[in-house]
Amino acid sequence: MLTIFRLTMREVMNKKIFLIAAILSVVFLVLFGLMLDLTVKSIQSTPPFSMAKAMVYPQLFTMGLYFACFLVNLFAIFLSVGAISSEIENGIMQAIVPKPVRRSGILLGKYLGYCFTLTVFGLLLFSAIFLLTKAICGYAPDNLIAGAGMFILQPLILLTLTMWGSAWLSTMANGITIIMLYVLATAGGMAETVGGFINNKALINTGIITSLLVPTDAAYRKMVSVMMESGSNPLSALSVTPFGTGTPPSGLMVGYMFVHIGLFLLLLVWVFRRRDL
Amino acid sequence: MVIETENLTKLYGDKVGCAEICLSVAAGQVFGFLGPNGAGKSTLVKMLVGLIYPTSGRARILGQPLGSMEARRRIGFLPENFRYQDWLTGYQLLMFHHALYGLPRGEAKNCLAEVLDLVGLTDRAGSRVKTYSRGMQQRIGLACALLPDPDLLFLDEPTSALDPIGRKEVREIILSLKNRGKTVFLNSHLLSEVEQVCDTVAVINKGRIITVRDVAGIKSGSRLEVVLAEITPAVTDALLKNGKVFAVDGSTLIVTLTADDEIPHIAEIIFNSGGQLFRLNKQTNSLEDTFLQILQEGGGPQC
User: Fold this and answer.
1) Closest by Cα among A177, A248, A166 to A213
2) Taking the model in full, what pTM does it have?
3) Peptide bond into A48 cis (omega under 30)
4) Has residue B295 been placed in a domain?
5) Residues B241 and B190 in one domain
6) Which residues in chain A have their CB less than 8 angstroms from residue B144's CB?
7) Whole domain around residue B263: which residue ranges?
8) To the nearest whole angstrom, how far is the Cα of A203 from the nearest Cα of chain B?
9) Given B194, B215, B236, which residue is the final one in a domain?
10) With an 8 Å Cβ cutoff, is B271 touching chain A?
11) Separation in Å, CA of A82 to nearest CA in chain B
């Protein structure tokens, strides 16, 4: 398992997608920093300054996190979309599986390699968003560690789901399926937020069902809610933008996210162990 | 026995991959596995190395049940359609496979140097696999398979991408392994190659083994080509009466020989039955002739 883990890490570093993701993330951070700077300069010249600050800075921070999540989630999908299927299709797996390693060991080695990469990449992005907001706006949210945890949970949910799909679908079919599920989860999350504001049970239930299917948006909303917990952003709760939270997911939903990862990890191992190569 | 299978069967829905395969491969031999394209050769090899699961039947490899980790440590396998991580160098690729086998790290340097030398890639070990030609990729694949100094080596079409010199080198590697008491299971459709290195061959067609034969026995057989002005019933009747086995090909009779001193006797039979003899030509049986004949005749179940 350790051998596969090490090889996966090297492979990720060698993939062009990693370089592209790193470059585009830097571009995104530069743009985000520029936007923060221009906003701060604009607010400082507009009274009442403190009220504008309380309204705008948390929104800017959550907006930064929203797009950072989008980046890291897409990276998770594209990184692992062919993790198994493409290696079966091109014959790499045929040279590895007959070796004295368990199929589950091969999978877990790859999975942990991707987990580690995504965790490091996600934490770097999260830290950069936080540091830029703190340095330029002087704004710091609450519960950074819990927020970072929820931030990382999203790509890990998608990674597990994508690798499971990769164990039994072709690379193309898996990519399309996972992207559609991710969009569905995001749309469902927004529907739940809107449903919460207008008190519409049907919309809320739609959001809950999509969150049970793919709980990425629930993790995003939980992240925002824990970081805005102590009233540092009293006005942001009124927001119905895509960056707002509406009704925050419960602790039970957070538990479900871990169950979701565990369940699909087990399914991944089960499918791959039974599969003819 | 190094390989023992009993009614090993693989079905893909209604389609037969392999059916009721019964094989016994003794240690220290080069065992050839022949068959036309789509006959089920690769299906059987894939089952034996654990890539696909049998639908029914049993098999033991090196005395262990299929999929056993202990057996896998002693098996080398060069797949037919393979690709390696081409962003690695040849040396890094071998290190990776060395680690997969769980071999001691301290021995890696010597072990890698040995297999690289054996496949003639020492000079290119530092180059990325993606810069290798197809033949070189086949050699590095062979090097990966040889890493654990396997007791049993499965080679699935090992020379398909090699030039004549490369083929000769692979044949030499196979024979040197045999001389060291190793067993090689060679899956190939290159009959001349199988003929040169194998002790025993099994022929598979439509998923079933139709015969298992000793290569030396096949090669020791010969036939007599008899060209006549006309093949008359009197000639064929006379040959049959004398217990000769023959086939007719136009104006040529192909008579199976059991010994060279039969030749004058056959000529005498033809002459006495009124046949006009134009030419007699003795030919040694090749594996190709036997293979084609076996495929035409079909065969019986082997279990």
Assistant:
1) A177
2) 0.83
3) yes
4) no
5) no
6) 95
7) 222-284
8) 44
9) B215
10) no
11) 14
Residue where a domain stops, chosen among B215, B238, B263: B215
Contact (Cβ atoms closer than 8 angstroms) between residue A77 and residue A261: no
Of A3, A11, A276, the CB nearest to B100: A3
Compute CA B40 distance to the chain's CA centroid, rounded to the nearest angstrom.
Answer: 13
Confirm whether B264 is domain-assigned.
yes
Please state the domain count of chain B: 2
Contact A99 B97 (CB under 8 A): yes
Residue with tokens 């083929």: B167
pLDDT tens digits in sequence order for chain A, 277 residues long: 888 999 998 888 888 888 888 899 999 999 999 999 998 888 877 666 666 677 788 888 988 999 999 999 999 999 999 999 999 988 899 999 999 999 999 999 999 999 999 999 999 999 999 999 999 988 888 889 999 999 999 999 999 999 999 999 999 999 999 999 999 998 888 888 888 778 888 888 888 888 899 999 999 989 988 888 655 555 555 454 555 666 778 889 999 999 999 999 999 999 999 999 8
CATH number for position B122: 3.40.50.300
Of A15, A14, A109, A271, give the one whose Cα is nearest residue B100: A109
User: Is there a single domain that holds both residue B116 and residue B250?
Assistant: no
Q: What's the DSSP call for residue B89?
A: B
Burial degree of A102 (CB within 10 A; 0-12, 13-18, 19+): middle
A10, A95, A99 ranked by CB distance to B72: nearest: A99
